[in-house]
Amino acid sequence: MGGPDSLDSVEPFLRNLFSDRDIIKLGPSFLQKPIASLIIRKRLESVIEAYSLIGGKSPLLDITNAQAKALENLLNSKFEIRNSKFRVYVGMRYWRPFIEEAVDHAMRDGISRILALSLYPHYSIATTGSSVKKFEEAIKKYHVDYFSAISWFNHPLYIDALVENIQKGIKTFDKKPVVLFSAHSLPKKFVDKGDPYVNEIKGTIDAILRKVDIEWHLSYQSKTGPVKWLEPTTEEVLHELAKKGVKDLLAVPISFVSDHIETLYEIDMLYKDMARGLGMNLKRMESLNTSPKFIEALSDIVIKNAKDLGWI
Fold first, then answer.
1. Class of domain 156-284
2. pTM above 0.90, yes or no
3. How far is it, in rounded angstroms, from Cα 224 to Cα 32?
4. pLDDT one-digit tens code per residue, 212-246
5. 263 Cβ contact partners less than 8 Å away, ≥ 6 residues apart
6. What are the residue ranges spanned by the domains of the chain?
């Protein structure tokens, strides 16, 4: 999705986000922007405050640039295509560098084949779908080969990277904690219409459970806007677990591959404080970020797709 690179860019970032009907439909199309403006006005001050608490901007671009560099280096250490190298570009959906800017950059560099790699492990029309749609709008004006890798929720190396970090997190407790998989929420009507997001989230969890023995629960966080979202919410599950006497809880942000406001503010501050007030010790699994095993997973996805396409 991208994230604001300063407090001044929080408002235009939110405006871009809430104007996208692929992620959330705010009434009929002609009311999308007016309703978005009302929501932004109501939330702006609290969102700016949240970003100020995590350094005055989203860390997402810095982390994604580091992931891109690590991926580029790994790919080029494995393959060389007709004496040319892999180049990895970063394109964001709602803030700079935008997807269309990344495509234009690649074209200026003389790139003739582009594999768009979604950093959403789990496909949803509201996230991956919107981003791929924007990518295809940008790339179709150029005469180049392109392909989009849109879902890799059960890729073995991705699962290994998650299991590795879950096991690290478990070791930070004196007693084995309960694991709470907290996924980014989604308007429920998308799932009702067949969106695979929830099934893919559960597919990731099933793959994890084949490798590690844990007591676990699933919840959804970060809902916004006046529509019905997925349930149960992370807040609801925290209260339920406290009533059941759970004392130690490892939060696993299952749909996120990088630190950003949902991990650094929502989980590390809001949910941790809420858990403490309920008598629980909540810690968060370290995000994948530039974990070597995660970068290896991305490399494998790129290489397999490129081979299937006959590019390498």
1. alpha beta
2. yes
3. 14
4. 999 999 999 998 767 899 999 999 999 999 999 99
5. 253, 256, 284, 287
6. 156-284
